[in-house]
Amino acid sequence: MKKGSIFVKPRELVVPGTLLVQGPFKNGRGTFREGNRIYSTVVGLVEIRGDLVRVIPLEGPYMPEVGDNVLGKIVDVRFSNWVVDIGAPYEASLRVQDATEERIDIMKTDLRRIFDIGDVIYAKIKAYNEVNQIDLTTKGMPFKGGPLRGGQLVTITPSKVPRVIGKGGSMINMIKRLTNTRIIVGQNGWVWVSGRNGELERLAIEAILKVDRESHTQGLTDRVKEFLLEKLRELKERGVITELPKIDEGKEGGGNDGKT
Amino acid sequence: MKVKRVEAMMGRPEGLKLIDENGKRLDGRKKYELRRIDMEVGVLKNADGSAYVEWGKNKILAAVYGPREIHPKHLQRPDMAVLRVRYNMAPFSVEERKKPGPDRRSVEISKVIRGALEPALLLEMFPRTVIDVFIEVLQADAGTRVAGITAASLALADAGVPMRDLVAACAAGKIDGEIVLDLNKDEDNYGEADVPVAIMPLKNDITLLQMDGYLTRDELLEAVKLAIKGAKAVYQKQREALKEKYLQIAQEVAGNE
Known about the structure:
The complex is a heterodimer of chains A (260) and B (257).
Chain A: E1 5-6, E2 13-14, E3 19-22, E4 26-27, E5 31-34, E6 37-40, E7 44-49, E8 52-57, E9 69-77, E10 81-85, E11 92-95, H1 96-99, E12 120-128, E13 134-137, E14 152-155, H2 161-165, H3 170-179, E15 181-185, E16 190-195, H4 198-213, H5 220-237
Parallel strand pairs in A: 4-8, 11-13
Antiparallel strand pairs in A: 1-3, 2-7, 3-6, 5-6, 7-8, 9-10, 9-12, 10-11, 12-13, 14-16, 15-16
Helix pairs in contact in A: 3-4, 3-5, 4-5
Chain B: H1 5-10, E1 37-41, E2 49-55, E3 58-69, E4 82-89, H2 104-117, E5 129-139, H3 144-158, E6 168-175, E7 178-181, H4 185-190, E8 193-200, E9 205-209, E10 212-213, H5 217-255
Parallel strand pairs in B: 4-5
Antiparallel strand pairs in B: 1-2, 2-3, 3-5, 6-7, 6-8, 8-9, 8-10
């Protein structure tokens, strides 16, 4: 019979060096083991699932994982590849053959015509190896991977991305619907927001930052909804928008670009 | 400042008593009392992590950037992250204007603070990168290195850099023949010794131990024990300060409902 003791409540806020559990547990992310005790290594919320103990960080860098869809910014154009900043501790690289289906003669083509410095792209992490090289691909991505024109880029803590998306995209779809903006959430915590109306675009960003800030609290979806509706009523009074968007709980079409 | 001790000892005002008949010190503290300490994390918008500490009259700001790519490239280590610490005193932080820029003293303090923080960090999680820690002393009143370590450790935790434990620090010293906790500037200048100590309280590891002045073996042991006690009190405050940032938001949210 296995025995162990748990010293924390579920979703309790802990700081580095907090004793979490003792006994036959597995230590997941955000924890370390010392003998048969498991301690926290970050500021975050405790999650115990079965015998797996982990701490979901409230701050921290983005660590790339193969298959993640991320937003990135081109920082350099080289002979046959682009250097991309994806907010990770390491630079990512996008090779020509991973960018387009068609064959490109790099001797004759100026790569800056495809992606230039400063362009925002939407890419998938193709490989992440032992020497910390990150390879991206834009093949098969929505919008042909970019460049994303117009709109704004906001940054949130990567560990809060699931919260911004919500269960089955509930949070992000609500924000999209109410503000009538296009939003792409990258797993790296970069969010691209673009709306026809500047005021609505700003409102969407405010809502996203609100989720980021209050991610550790309860009843967030309802609170963000209230917040958005209140602001929308204000905008209507000022004549920025003519009517409030319908708040039906029906199925959302169009899918979610940033969810996967 | 330490280098001035010899002159300062000589310049000690006639009849100055660091501990009065009632056992009170110059600022009214008892022998084993810390100065007032206030901490706040997340004070800088553009840093990955930051902290502000007011420790008596010390005012210290710490900022953390990274893990990020290291420049120049030859400094990178293939197996772990590099920790860079810069301790700097603002020109206006002391009574006599300090010449800006690093000097012998601040280079040394940067080095010992790096040594004090390094054991707490899981640097092997981020090979080929650098974690930069900047400690700015805005106002100095003795004990800036321990306050700096305290602030830097908070800033690292705020940045989400994985750590085995927080590093807490405190100093003890000898004034008028007695071992006391947490010297202030006058006590440091006119006292006999100063012993800064940094610890990782979880396993009682000492990550910094220095001594400036003269102590017997027994006095040193007493001072170290006292400083560790002080550091443990600082540790509790650090934990509260880190949680406070999020509890405040939670409270604000609950209050609006």
